[in-house]
Specification:
There is one protein chain. The protein is built from 16 helices and 30 strands. By secondary structure, it is an alpha+beta fold. It has a domain of 234 residues: Glycosyl hydrolase family 63, N-terminal domain (Beta-galactosidase, Chain A, domain 5, Distorted Sandwich), CATH 2.70.98. An 8-stranded antiparallel sheet has the order 1-2-3-4-13-8-7-6. A 3-stranded antiparallel sheet has the order 5-12-9, with helices on one face. It is a single-pass type II membrane protein. Cleaves the distal alpha 1,2-linked glucose residue from the Glc(3)Man(9)GlcNAc(2) oligosaccharide precursor. Its EC number is 3.2.1.106. Pfam families: Glyco_hydro_63, Glyco_hydro_63N.
């Protein structure tokens, strides 16, 4: 039984091959021998978004005869408000549903009878339906599972009879007695022997002059028109054909963009927030969020720093859509100017998150990457939009300066590092987005975080640009940008001579290791608990630069704060290109191979994450910066261009190769083999490969 995307289901491939983010999409799903294709088209009209239709095509590949039976389940559910009225045929087939909701007005959903794949001949099928009170959208799979019975018989004329599972009577979920229903759920189950095709139409009550039902031949024609329009628009936007990419690589890029668009969601609910001013966590005010997500299977919710990278790509495809997403995120801001880094809104989102990650801490930041996307949108952004955004941007900027400032002027420190350093080889810094990337071994107020300082320089630059577009005073932002971009001061605070690189500064010991420690029994005669891995510090920490060479060391280059004639630029480029350090045939690795914590576990249960693997978002920033330095007058111009060409080739070739072999974009890639690893599909920032192919920075 498949319902939501689950990585553990082990599907060999699934994802959107085409999706325009608005009115059309084509998705393919391969599950063992089963091939499913889902397609939809929306047709505007009326006052509630118009009509839309779905087509699901199913066939078995490489299976013997007879093909195993397939059941498709279609759910229609209200969520808190709205009404649904089932219309049955022969007491078992849900032929249609009429209903109302606040956003959709009156509507009719029609389930057409299945046909052969050609769409012409009717197909024998068995029908079942369920009409039940909904315990919440996050529990619909359980409703189906608890209602199944195998007493049903599939009996096509002239063929053997076969038993199958179908929804029968729903008697309620265990432990849910007495709970008030959250809504109403109707379920249409159609069981057939593939191949076959099923269509569903949604017709809005406010569409007056409907040209006819969007089904059969008219749906096929609409899909063909949309496919042609999508391919034309994709080439106009990204120009991959003009660049000489062959059709398979262009299809890969189309799928990367489409899977990001197809993963977008609209979320509603409350975050659980812990503030230093309150003893206990409290629910934040009700919020709504329209956003892309990093991964449909593993991270199906909004993440603040991921979203800025997502919008770099979407801003190129659909600037209006991108502006809307950025506005949604800025509307999540509280009175202090803080935006929670992870958005777990509503029961469906909460059901996917381990309890220890539900809580958002109001002193914890996240990189303001939304400003990268906003900078890209600025030239064409309507002034009324910027005027509405500006007070929020100002509050956000002020919050960073107020809450993340370091001990010295013009230094910054991520708050919220892991509070129990003895449990970790190196206490995590989730706020930075680079979770387990090595920082000072002993968190302290003296820490200076290089990446955050560079993000604040970018923030100052973008706030200055927005202020100037609006005719608002930009002086304070421009002065801060200048101070944070001052290469001399940057060196003084962050250049580690002994490392030959830029670095964090803090209370640090490089002589740390994890070792097993026996734990005494809780009481005499009781068995002792399992041994624990704890950190052993073999040399006392002292204030100094942190000896970790990796992504953080590159930030002055990544955000282009280093002048093209900087005397430090050759060393940074050499670090990038050194195979002993960051260079691999697949992209730049996150931590140098000769770094003490390279590929080291952080705890018994935490494998290395940002300690070696290749991540696409930082490689994108590196290519963007190298492209900039290659186009600027300076002594490193040719070297930057050469590294740019090699790195772009390596990254694109490996992502395409891994996609061809595995069917997915991945969260990260092995720095030793190039293989995709972490969660999949990951059409979040890994989809930035489209901009890299287009050389659109």
């Amino acid at each position: 039984l498949r319902h939501t995307c689950e990585q553990g289901d082990g599907l060999s491939r699934y994802g959107w091959l085409m999706h325009d983010g608005e009115s059309f999409g084509v998705q393919e799903i391969r599950d063992g021998g089963l091939f499913l294709k889902t397609e939809f088209v929306k047709r505007p009209g009326g006052e509630h978004g118009g009509d839309w239709s779905w087509r699901v095509t199913a066939r078995m590949e490489g299976a013997g005869s007879p093909a195993p039976l397939l059941s498709l389940f279609f759910y229609i559910a209200t969520d808190g408000q709205g009404t649904l009225e089932p219309h049955l045929e022969n007491k078992t087939r849900l032929a249609a549903v009429t209903g109302t909701s606040e956003e959709l007005g009156h509507f009719t959903l029609t389930f057409l009878r299945p046909t052969a794949e050609s769409g012409d001949d009717p197909k024998y099928a068995s029908y079942s339906y369920l009409d039940a009170a909904s315990p919440g959208l996050h529990r619909l799979t359980e409703v189906v599972r608890s209602s199944l019975s195998n007493r049903f018989v599939f009996a096509p004329p002239g063929k053997p009879r076969r038993r199958f599972f179908a929804v029968d009577a729903f008697r309620g979920l265990p432990g849910a007695a007495g709970e008030a229903p959250r809504g109403h759920v109707l379920l249409h189950q159609v069981t057939l022997e593939p191949p076959g095709m099923v269509e569903v139409t949604f017709e809005s009550g406010s569409v007056a002059d409907r040209p006819g039902r969007l089904a059969g031949g008219s749906l096929s024609a609409a899909l063909a028109r949309h496919v042609a329009a999508f391919e034309r628009r994709f080439e106009e936007t990204f120009g991959l054909g003009r660049k000489g990419f062959p059709p398979p690589q262009r299809r890969f890029a189309q799928a990367a963009l489409s899977d990001m668009l197809g993963g977008m969601g609209y979320f509603h609910g409350r975050s659980l927030v812990h503030s230093p001013l309150q003893e206990h966590p409290v629910p934040a005010p009700e919020a709504t969020l329209f956003t892309a997500v990093p991964s449909r299977s593993f991270f199906p919710r909004g993440f603040l720093w991921d979203e800025g990278f997502h919008q770099l790509l979407l801003a190129r495809w659909d600037p209006a859509l991108s502006r809307e997403v950025i506005a949604h995120w800025l509307d999540l801001m509280n009175a202090e100017g803080w935006i929670p880094r992870e958005q777990i809104l509503g029961e469906e989102a909460r059901a996917k998150v381990p309890p220890e990650f539900l809580l958002q801490h109001s002193e914890t930041a996240n990189p303001p990457t939304l400003l990268l996307a906003l900078q890209r949108l600025l030239p064409d952004a309507p002034l009324p939009y910027l005027r509405r955004l500006f007070p929020r941007l100002r509050a956000w900027y002020d919050w960073y300066n107020r809450t993340q400032a370091g001990a010295l002027p013009l230094t910054f420190r991520w708050r919220g590092r892991d509070p129990h350093p003895e449990r970790f080889l190196n206490p995590k810094t989730l706020a930075s987005g680079l979770d387990d990337y090595p920082r000072a071994s002993h968190p302290s107020p003296e820490e200076r975080h290089l990446d955050l300082r560079c993000w604040m320089a970018l923030a100052s630059r973008v706030l200055g640009e927005v202020a100037e577009r609006l005719g608002e005073p930009s002086g304070p932002y421009r002065e801060m940008e200048q101070a944070l971009s001052d290469n001399g001061l940057l060196e003084q605070l962050h250049w580690a001579q002994e490392l030959g690189a830029f670095a964090d500064y803090g209370n640090h010991s490089s002589a740390v290791a994890l070792r097993w420690q026996r734990v005494a029994p809780a009481a005499p005669g009781r068995p002792p608990p399992d041994p624990q891995l704890v950190r052993e510090v073999r040399e006392a920490p002292r204030l100094r630069f942190v000896g970790a060479l990796g992504y953080v060391s590159l930030f002055p280059l990544l955000l282009q704060l280093l002048r093209p004639d900087s005397p430090r630029l050759p060393a940074v480029l050499a670090t990038m290109r050194s195979e002993r350090q960051l260079w691999t045939p697949f992209g730049l690795r996150s931590l140098a191979r000769d770094s003490p914590l390279y590929m080291q576990r952080n705890t018994q249960h935490d494998p290395p994450y940002w300690r070696g693997p290749v991540w696409v978002n930082i490689n994108y920033l590196a290519l963007r910066a190298l492209h900039g330095y290659a186009g600027a007058d300076g002594p490193q111009r040719e070297r930057a261009a050469e590294i740019y060409r090699e790195l772009r080739h390596n990254l694109v070739a490996n992502l395409y190769r891994q996609y061809s072999e595995s069917g997915f974009l991945w969260e990260q890639y092995s720095d030793s083999t190039g293989r995709g690893q972490g969660c999949h599909p990951f059409a979040g920032w890994s989809a930035l490969v489209v901009l890299v192919m287009a050389e659109d920075y």
